What we know:
Elements: H1 3-18, H2 24-39, H3 43-47, H4 50-54, H5 59-66, H6 72-84, E1 98-102, E2 111-115, H7 117-133, E3 147-151, E4 158-160, E5 163-166, H8 168-173, E6 184-185, H9 188-191, H10 196-206, E7 212-217, H11 219-233, E8 247-250, H12 259-263, E9 271-278, E10 281-285, E11 294-296, E12 302-308, E13 337-344, E14 351-361, E15 366-372, H13 386-400, E16 406-414, E17 417-425, H14 432-446, H15 448-454, E18 458-466, H16 469-478, H17 493-504
Parallel strand pairs: 1-5, 3-6, 3-7, 7-8, 8-9, 17-18
Antiparallel strand pairs: 1-2, 4-5, 9-10, 10-11, 11-15, 12-13, 13-14, 14-15, 16-17
Helix pairs in contact: 10-11, 13-14, 14-15
Amino acid sequence: MAILGSIIKGAIHLKDTLSSDSHPAEEQKEVLQELLTKAKDTAFGKFYGFSKILEADDIQSAFAKAVPYFDYHKMATDWWSQVYDGLEDITWPGKPNYFALSSGTTGKKSKRIPVTEAMLTAIQDAGVAQVQALSNFELPTDFFEKEVMALGSSTDLQERDEFLEGEISGITASNIPFWFKGYYKPGEDIAKIDDWDTRVATIAKNAKQWDIGALSGIPSWMELMLKEVIEYHKVKNIHEVWPNLQVFTSGGVAFQPYEKSFNALMEKPITVIDTYLASEGFLAFQTRPDTEAMKLSTNTGIYFEFVPFKPEYILDDGSLAQDAPALNLSQVEKGVDYVLIISTVSGAWRYLIGDTIAFTDVERAEIKITGRTKFFLNVVGSQLSVNKMETALRELEEEFNIKIPEFTLSAKKIDGEFYHCWYLGTESDVDESKLAEALDNNLKEANKNYKVARGKSLKGVKVTTIKPSIFAEWSGANKKKGGQVKMEKVMGEEKFVEWEKFVSER
């Protein structure tokens, strides 16, 4: 009998039973009050009058009126530049020990986002809450004795002045609680290997030494790692190496686009649990099995606001117009796309994280990620969000019985006419013109603005199919493999020229 597993599972069930029902909207009011109280004597808090906001009858409304929206560039230029220089009490009391480096999907130059001790504690608290939620997933007792393979960025953090820098997954992995170290794989030594290919090759070599029950990481990079392990050991699927694998905790991007190709690597179904860990914090995680939505982490140091995702509120560079209205959690509606705004215990204030979300259950504060503000294709009025693109591609997969885990596109002028030019990552050999016709029809059905645009200025759709591995090669050539790096779904004209040249050389 798995005695330790029984104890852990029993403790999780007991904790879940003793926990009172959460009230997300009320928790958010408390979080904002705590944030403002702790930061009121910082330079930022004094400049924007946090003490006065705290005296207001409605501090959520007062906060929204007093503090403008910040994207990374504005936050870094106006405030975090002083933190980089080592000054204290700028946007959060004291100064951080870490900076999370994030190139994300925007280019080679990394952003430097403060990570305070309070944020590390908040991330751990959210992680514990996620573990507690496992009681809802009917996992067998022995699962809680198995090891967890976390594939993130290197934990070998780099010193810069008085700070340590690395991607958020590397920072959090280097600060894992002592009680989890026995479960954590690939272990500290392998996790420190900076070169992603070398780290994955080392994981593959050692894979059979571990009894992996759960995987955690970004789907695209996890899939490549699993293929490497399978190939190294000359087996048909990953369960021949890790027979007790039962759970994949997916993070960074939606899992659905990778579902078909990911499941092809399995001998038996596994439980997929979505999470939303960004460089700015642990924002949400899935708490129950009968939904693909994630619950916002409403009581762990992050205050959320929501701006309706409308073209008139989004500037050309993807930032927000300052007159765009912001809603708090008590004001949102189900099924509406919102730009996500956060204020955190790392000293990010009314910060545009760059993602768009929609609520699937307002009372539970459950969301799904619908896209990126910069991945919004509105050339010639098509108003295509990533969510609509993904929906059209999933229909394409079903129609042609193919797998399309990766894609990118751009609006391109050809012979004086605008086309949406798609690159689909797939191993299939379906005729590209048939895919283009079907994709065009799917998009017309999914988006009325796209249908209108197709009758006017948008001439048509062009599709080019390429191997999915080329997307990883592009990320490796332009940024860095693994970690939090994600493929840009919509490219501007200049970047698309570089992309097409890169593809033509493969």
